[in-house]
Specification:
globular, Aspartate Aminotransferase, domain 1, alpha/beta, Aspartate Aminotransferase, domain 2, about 35% helix, about 425 residues, 5-stranded mixed beta sheet, 7-stranded mixed beta sheet
Length: about 425
């Protein structure tokens, strides 16, 4: 037999998971807007409910349109399987739900999206899950924190941090997790698999808010957990959920039965079943469509961001620019290593006028949209200290790269000269 061709990223972004519809010949992926599916007979129904055969039962667990997106995501990230869900926060919940139990802990970078810090530091405690935040600029900080963490089961980082554009030394952190025999989880939302593929650098699980660059048009909420399929769930009692008998399925052992798809099957059969954060089929369809142009959009996003960052670095109203694409960034070398196609298009600036200047800038722009999202084709602006990071203390805000003087920019795909002109006129209003 002829060996199948190794398709490139752009080709897979268009085709993976979506062959022509077998029944109608439709080339676009159909939107299966249905809640449930008719069983052939009682035996087939029982087989599906017992996880003895693959098929569709109820759209809280599985849906054909969502399944197509899951296959595409797993393919683009180089993973074994994926679980798609309602949002990026739902993806983080599902990722940890698969192996955490009351009293267990995990280490997390303190350079995270503010909502993630709140979710980990507050909401997760209601499950008895304890997060310890670590300064990830020195990977050895994770090693030191492991000595103090009780029943630690994972390390969580963002490949490219939101909002500060901090680049994580993925391989260094991966080695620490591997030496400790614990999971390494990477949020790859800001980079997308076009710019970075964390599994190639040692990640066990990769999470996404598909709402951002993957969908790309600010239309559809969604999240995804991609499993590398490489983690041995039977290596420790810490991960008994996936290695030991599951009472709800008559003692079935997920790793023994499903091998490198254990996490993926568990995510559907238990996570989505019991927590219920299903992705809407329409959102899956819109995300699939968005991913088809991901490579093209990311090239333009990066080119525009580099031009805007260079302009802002020289502007008299700007104190500093935190963008790993600039040679002056302390993360420039890491960006070249882990993000060779560009350091993304989301970054922060510090204004000389502090908090008040930040407010004036976001209210003074005309082309940029002032809203709490990133990764849109349209350029977006936000003052994190008064919005996404408002729930944090000032010390936490500063540690997360979202201090009072900080403004976050998500550079879109418009004409870059228009973006620069808009920022220039708005910055003039911040100077007293």
């Amino acid at each position: 037999m002829t060996k199948p061709p190794a398709y490139g990223f752009e080709t897979l972004a268009v085709h993976a998971g979506t062959p022509p519809d077998a029944t109608t010949g439709a080339r676009a992926m159909p939107i299966y807007q249905t809640t449930a599916y008719v069983f052939e007979d009682v035996d087939q129904a029982a087989s599906l409910f017992n996880l003895q055969s693959y098929g569709y039962i109820y759209s809280r667990l599985t849906n054909p349109t969502v399944a197509a997106l899951e296959e595409r995501m797993a393919t683009l990230e180089g993973g074994r399987g994926a679980v798609c869900c309602a949002s990026g926060h739902a993806a983080q919940l599902l990722a940890f739900f698969g192996f955490m139990t009351p009293g267990a802990s995990f280490l997390a970078s303190n350079r995270l999206y503010g909502g993630s810090i709140t979710q980990f530091g507050r909401s997760f405690t209601k499950f008895g899950w304890n997060a310890k935040f670590v300064d990830q600029t020195d990977p050895d900080n994770f090693k030191r924190a492991l000595d103090e963490a009780e029943d630690c089961r994972a390390i969580f980082v963002e490949s490219l941090a939101n909002p500060g554009g901090v680049v994580t030394d993925l391989e260094a952190v991966a080695r620490i997790a591997q030496d400790a025999g614990i999971l390494f989880i990477v949020d790859n939302t800001m980079a997308s698999p076009y710019l970075c593929r964390p599994i190639e650098h040692g990640a066990d699980l990769v999470v996404h808010s598909t709402t951002k660059f993957l969908g790309g048009h600010g239309q559809a909420m969604g999240g995804c957990v991609v499993d590398s399929g490489k983690f041995d769930w039977s290596q420790s009692a810490k991960y008994a959920t996936l290695a030991e008998p599951e009472p709800a399925y008559h003692g079935l052992r997920f790793q023994e039965t499903f091998g490198d798809l254990a996490f993926t099957v568990h995510g559907h059969a238990v996570g989505l079943r019991d927590l219920g954060p299903a992705m809407a089929p329409m959102n899956a369809f819109l995300t699939l469509t968005g991913i088809e142009t991901l490579a093209l959009r990311m090239e333009r996003h990066v080119a525009n961001a580099e031009a805007v960052a260079r302009f802002l670095a020289e502007h008299p109203a700007v104190d500093w620019v935190s963008y790993a694409g600039l040679p002056s960034s302390p993360y420039h070398a890491l960006a070249k290593r882990y993000l060779p196609k560009g350091a993304g298009s989301v970054f922060t600036i510090g204004l000389k006028g502090g908090y008040e200047a930040g407010i004036k800038l976001v209210e003074g722009v005309e082309l940029f949209s002032h809203l709490a999202n990133i990764g849109d084709t349209k350029s977006l602006i936000l003052h994190p200290a008064s919005t996404t990071h408002r729930q944090l203390t000032e010390a936490q805000q500063i540690a997360a790269g979202a201090g009072p003087e900080v403004v976050r920019l998500s550079i879109g795909i418009e004409q870059r000269e228009d973006l620069i002109r808009d920022l220039d006129q708005a910055l003039a209003k911040t100077v007293v």
